[in-house]
Amino acid sequence: MKPKVLLIDDDFFQIRITSRYFQKTGWTVLTAGNGEDGLKAALTDRPELVIVDYSMPLMNGYDFIIKLHSAPEARDIPVLMLSGCEPAPEIQKLTKSDSAFLGFLAKPASFIDIEKHILFSRSYKNATR
Predict the structure, then answer these.
(1) CB of 8 within 8 A of CB of 39?
(2) pLDDT by residue (tens digit) across 45-89?
(3) How far apart are CA 123 and CA 71, in angstroms?
(4) At what angle do helices 61-70 and 89-97 cross, to 10 degrees?
(5) Closest CA relative to residue 52, chosen from 73, 74, 30
(6) b/e code 32-68 from CB counts within 10 Å (16+ = b)
(7) Distance CA 58, CA 29 (A)
């Protein structure tokens, strides 16, 4: 079975580009246009990786991560944050307090940098099993 990645971003162009990359590299891609829909999808579909934008309507990326990882069944889902803005101070707290938070990458992030985080995520999941 193909691994699943959930892409959460209110920028349709960003979703489309990133979706194509993941589909070409063998992933099943799930998408959501805001944090609330993303949270529902993550809790229902249990992806192997979530990539979330910071600045979105209804629920920002930080609040999404806090809510996702407060659910016992989802606390180990690795999340990578991508954003066009500078990381907010609360993102530094996540880096220190949330072991499933893979970090922050500024947009436009290269797929090489994203792949590095994915490799880390797989290593993380294998180490915690």
Answers:
(1) no
(2) 999 999 999 888 899 998 999 999 999 999 989 999 887 776 667
(3) 22
(4) 30
(5) 30
(6) bbbbbebbebbeeeebbbbbbbbebeebbbbebbbbb
(7) 22
* Residue 45 to residue 110: CA distance in whole angstroms: 26
With a CB cutoff of 8 Å and minimum separation 6, the contacts of 82 are 9, 14, 51, 52, 53, 54, 104, 105, 106, 107, 109, 114
95: amino acid identity, one letter: T
Q: Is there a cis peptide before residue 3, judged by omega within 30 degrees of 0?
A: no
**pLDDT(118) > 50:** yes
- Sort 126 into a burial class: Cβ within 10 Å, 0-12 / 13-18 / 19+: exposed
Q: Which of 79, 90, 89 is nearest to 35 (CA)?
A: 79
Ordered structural domains, the chain, with CATH: 4-128 (3.40.50.2300)
The pair of structure tokens assigned to 47 is 């992806």
pTM to 2 decimal places: 0.86
By CB atoms closer than 10 A (0-12, 13-18, 19+), residue 85 is: exposed
